[in-house]
Amino acid sequence: DPDSGDNGLVLYSLVRGQTNEFDINEHTGQIFTVSVAGKAGTFNLEVQAADQGTRRLTAQTTVSVTVDSSSSSNIVMLVINQKINVVERNSAEVQRVLEDKLGWNVFVVNMDSKEVARKARSSTNETQVYIIAFDEDNQEVPAEDVKRSLREQRGAIELELQKVFAAPVSAAVGEAAAVPAPPERVAAIVLGVLLAAALGALLACVLLLLRRKRKHGKQDLVKKVEIMECIDNPWAADKNGSLKSLEKPEHMNN
């Protein structure tokens, strides 16, 4: 917008679409994900630009975002000696610094902290920032190339990040190259293990019941045979007076 003053101040917003999955930087118009874990496909977002003049003018356009569920081996971890809640608040500036110094389009895939406790978000002075870079042809930059460039530009990156955080910054390439499994995946693994255990227990119960049934079946068959033999020898009786399969008494042979 070539206007000056409030008429030239343009703010961006999402007016329709998956506003729970995406958000937009109202000053730059940059769209970023909020929560798309476990989701894939194309999302249509309606973006509005509006100036801040007395007679407010607006314009809208549709942005299609495609989320790929496949994993990537080109994700690189950058460890920054700042609290995770501070890094999250300045994620857009961190991304801008990395893009400026690396010369690629950089996206922050995830942020993590070594501490699991909630209080760690304001107490642990180390944040793991997972990034992926794309070249001008929108192709993923190999992880080794990203790591090499990060090491070469480390001094310049740290200097710019010091301006962002207003504090001394150390930014080192981490050893891990994979994004930590999201809670949904961990839950799926746990549920899978529990399901396997439950199926194993169920199978054991079924086998036990079949074994008992087979055993009782044999016993019933023996009893049936004994009863039939006793019927064939109605005069046979044991010492308790119950029918029993025995030879006929000697007086019967006479």
TrEMBL record:
Q: Does the keyword Repeat apply?
A: yes
Q: Which Gene3D superfamilies match?
A: Cadherins
Q: InterPro entries attached here?
A: Cadherin, Cadherin-like_dom, Cadherin-like_sf
Record Pfam families: Cadherin
Which residue ranges does the record assign to the Cadherin domain? 1-77
Q: Where are the transmembrane segments?
A: 186-210
Q: What is this protein called?
A: FAT4 protein
**Organism per entry:** Alaudala cheleensis
Gene responsible for this protein: Fat4_1
